[in-house]
Amino acid sequence: MHCKLIGVPLQDGASRLGCEMGPSALRTAGISETLESLQHSVIDLGNVYPGPLRDLRHPNSAVRFLPQIAGWTEVLAETAYRESADGFPIFLGGDHALSAGTVAGISRRSAEIGRPLYVLWLDAHTDFHTLETTESGNLHGTPVAYFTGRSGFENYYPALHAPVPTDRLCMIGIRSVDPLEHAAIQKTDATVNDMRMIDEHGVAALLRTFLQRVETNNGMLHVSLDVDFLDPSIAPAVGTTVPGGATFREAHLIMEMLHDSGLVTSLDLVELNPFLDERGRTATLLVDLTASLMGRKVMDRPTRSY
């Protein structure tokens, strides 16, 4: 793979400060060196930033940092579209609001080359709020609603070139959903696997079914990995901890299966808040999970002490 590292020091979508340090923490944890050790070529494109912001205001007074998130979405959509032309972009977040832009840009690219884009959403939350329905006003809860084409973002977020149909969306690890989100996503044909589904069926069976669908349709696959997908006992560096998340082995198994599938074409690593970490353990875990996605086998994993 020709891997392109793109830092996104975005924290305006979250309620706690610190995610802007995420790209630096992932670089410090050795993401570039790890990928190179797996025989991938790596180029670090540095960090991206939004341009001049528009004066945007929404009738929902709870909405926070709307001009900033709209600006980030615009620059990331263009960056993702451009850098996906000839490489494997890895977006180093930054809070999950960044995925509004990254998925929009990748979807535009996939539409141009005539392949459907599928999205694997590894998260405790569905992030299916619109600007009207969010009560917290934290816009890291809106990216899925936006890139799947839900109404309410017009004249605020950039116009979508190619919305992702909800039947191409698979969520795994869900365990904290607001009532309005729950009602809205139940009306779609998205695949939503909460933690009970994982407990009952095992993550391998759930993921395998989705990957078979992507392969059958010659799809491209974007993976969006939120730290809170993981259980906080192994990944404490996130401002939205929800108990009962994925275990160390479940997370690595997902990544190993994704590598075996050969379907993944782009990756988000989001919601890493180094201010809340313990001696870099969460950043190191994200790098190790990326290594599993990119070909490291279970027997090749280094011994670590914290």
Sum this structure up briefly.
The protein is an alpha/beta fold and 306 residues long. Helix 3 runs parallel beside helix 4, helix 7 crosses helix 8 and helix 9 packs parallel to helix 10.
Output the CATH homologous superfamily: Ureohydrolase domain
Question: Between the first and last Cα atoms, what is the distance in angstroms?
Answer: 30 Å
Strand order of the largest sheet: 2-1-3-8-7-4-5-6
What structural class do the secondary elements suggest? alpha/beta
Q: What shape does the CA trace take?
A: globular
Name the poorly predicted regions. Answer: none
Tell me the total number of β-strands: 8
Helical content band? 25-40%
Order of helices and strands: EHHEHEHEHEHEHHEHEH
What summary fits the major beta sheet? Answer: 8 strands, parallel
The helix count comes to: 10
Number of domains: 1
Q: Look at the structure and give the mean pLDDT.
A: 94
User: What is the strand content?
Assistant: 15-25%
Going by CATH, the architecture would be 3-Layer(aba) Sandwich
Radius of gyration: 18 Å
What is the CATH fold-level name?
Arginase, Chain A
CATH class: Alpha Beta
